[in-house]
Write a structure and sequence with these properties.
- The complex is a heterodimer of chains A (353) and B (161).
- Chain A has one domain: Aminopeptidase.
- Chain A is built from twelve helices and 15 strands.
- Chain A is an alpha+beta fold and 353 residues long.
- Chain A starts with a helix and ends with a strand.
- With 161 residues, chain B is mostly helical.
- Chain B has two domains: 72 residues, Rna Polymerase Sigma Factor, Chain: A (Orthogonal Bundle); 66 residues, Orthogonal Bundle (Arc Repressor Mutant, subunit A).
- Helix content of chain B is 79%, strand content 0%.
- Chain B is built from ten helices and no strands.
- In chain B, helix 1 packs antiparallel against helix 2, helix 1 packs parallel to helix 4 and helix 8 crosses helix 10.
- Classes of the chains: A alpha+beta (353), B mainly alpha (161).
- Chains A and B meet through helix 1 and helix 2 of A and helix 1, helix 2, helix 7, helix 8 and helix 10 of B.
């Protein structure tokens, strides 16, 4: 009857269904476009909030994130912190669709009480750490767990990573920043490129770029490319961390040359150019106060070291604190004696030039 | 389940379903594409439902029923380059399609009625589930189907007598 005719007609026309592969690609393209549009809208919103905060007057505003940045920059410099400071810089990996983002470059910036120089301490991303509410896992995953719990909010990822780093190193974190690939690229271009000196040549896995051994000036795209490379390096992940230290030292030098470390307005311009991929977190200290401190210390060449770790050749194949040397290092960090420690362990210091 | 896994396993079935709804591969593609873009952008919400598959089929069906005539008509007419996703029908197949009376009668039914027919006779779903997908009472589903069948029967009798 008519019902059977219908079933037959439907079955006959199954062949009309188009192939899936091109449609999937088209869906993917549209999704990327929409996401970009959403981001632009959000960026526009942030810029608007900043303008409103500036016009309406800061004290009237509730302390919301974008306005807080404005608040901090417009306030007169309050009491400058006097003790040692520790800042946390996190470089994120690329956003995988549907997955969380991990912090693959973890740099603890120690500012000693005498402000003589900055110490860049890199923590390997594969360090086995206790993550609150998760259990033992790799350090870079703490960012993913935090940001997933916060529905993709980068500040939640930063918060959880900060707690884990405090737990591991024993030092409180006074402030920090989160950088995505795009923020890194824009920031680098905003300062006019960053000088980096490499001890060995590197061939990019992701592009055709070849970074020769020796000193070179990198633009934004090249910097991102360099900081993604770990395959083919003698010491893989740890060598990449050293390159991140070299890049951070170069970036600081460039910002210093442009006057950004002593001039908050100048730094604000730089940070705005980095866009929404850069999140700055200053805790209880104000940004100008932090800058006046870090600016003084950054005038000298920074000293870069790695957290003393050993590789565990059994599951789950990550780094653990080196029982022989780590306690002394962490004690030196906590008691602000890193100058002594680095003088005693010159082999642990990364060559920056 | 991730969005990728879902798309891997369900995309072709959704495309077939969309072809039955729209009766046309190009419109089916547009319908699935529109729906899946929203699915991917809101994947967390979709994944939270009891059955992502049912959730997406409901999204797709509602999009089809609510689709404004103007919007998809323009989309089809303005398509510039040939689309590699849709096989160009050979003359023979095309003429077979042209002869397919019941298929062309289906296209004259109101969308909601057509959707009920596809859900019952192509997807073989029970009336309760059809009602859930369309967001209406089971009684409404049954009256929809009987009215659609009556229309088709009338056409059938007219041609064959």
């Amino acid at each position: 009857m008519i019902e059977d005719e219908l079933r037959a007609a439907f079955a006959r026309h199954e062949t009309l269904a188009p192939a899936t592969a091109p449609i999937r690609a088209a869906i993917e393209r549209t999704v990327v476009r929409r996401r970009r549009r959403r981001l632009r809208l959000r960026l526009g919103g942030t810029a608007l909030a900043l303008v409103v905060a500036a016009l309406v007057g800061v004290p009237a505003m509730t302390p919301d994130r974008p306005q807080q940045t404005a608040t901090l920059l417009l306030e007169p410099v309050p009491s400058t912190p006097t003790g040692a400071l520790n800042l946390l810089l996190l470089g994120l990996d690329g956003a995988s669709p549907g997955g969380g983002r991990r912090a693959d470059s973890i740099l603890l910036v120690h500012v000693p009480a005498d402000r003589s120089r900055l110490y860049l301490v890199s923590l390997p991303r594969d360090l086995q750490v206790p993550i609150p509410g998760v259990g033992t896992n790799k350090l870079n995953s703490s960012f993913a767990y935090g940001s997933m719990a916060g529905k993709g909010d980068l500040t939640h990822g930063y918060d959880l990573t900060r707690r884990v780093v405090t737990e591991v190193t024993g030092v409180p974190i006074d402030g920090g920043a989160v950088l995505t690939y795009s923020a890194l690229r824009k920031l680098t271009d905003a300062v006019g490129g960053v000088p980096v000196c490499l001890p060995q040549g590197i061939k990019s896995m992701h592009t055709r770029r070849v970074f020769p051994a020796g000193c070179q000036q990198l633009d934004g795209a090249a910097s991102v490319d360099l900081l993604r490379q770990r395959h083919g390096l003698t010491d893989a992940v740890r060598d990449r961390d050293r390159n991140a230290q070299r890049y951070a030292a170069g970036l600081l030098r460039r910002i210093g040359e442009r006057g950004g470390l002593t001039n908050p307005a100048m730094l604000h311009t730089l940070l705005t150019q980095a866009g929404s991929g850069l999140t700055v977190e200053t805790g209880e200290t104000s940004l100008p106060a932090l800058l006046s401190v870090a600016g003084k210390a950054a005038a000298a060449e920074p000293v870069a070291v790695g957290l003393p770790v050993v590789y565990a050749e059994k599951p789950f194949f990550g780094f653990q604190l080196d029982r022989a040397t780590a306690p002394a290092f962490l004690a030196a960090l906590g008691e602000d004696r890193l100058s002594e420690w680095t003088a005693a362990h010159p082999d642990r210091v990364t060559g920056l030039r | 389940m991730t969005y990728e896994e879902f798309a891997d396993s369900r995309l072709s079935a959704l495309l077939r379903y969309a072809v039955m709804l729209t009766g046309d591969p190009h419109q089916a593609q547009d319908l699935v594409q529109d729906t899946m873009v929203r699915v991917q952008l809101n994947w967390r919400r979709v994944a939270r439902s009891d059955s992502p598959e049912r959730y997406v089929r409901r999204m797709l069906t509602n999009q089809y029923v609510d689709w404004r005539r103007g919007s998809w008509a323009r989309r089809v007419l303005l398509r510039g380059e040939p689309d590699e996703a849709v096989p160009a029908p050979s003359d023979h197949a095309q003429s077979a399609v042209d002869r397919d009376q019941i298929w062309s009668w289906l296209s004259r039914l109101p969308r909601r009625q057509r959707a009920t027919l596809v859900l019952r006779y192509y997807e073989d779903l029970p009336d309760a589930e059809i009602a859930e997908i369309l967001g209406c009472a089971v009684g409404t589903v049954r009256s929809c189907i009987s009215r659609a069948l009556a229309t088709l029967r009338a056409e059938y009798v007219e041609v064959c007598s």
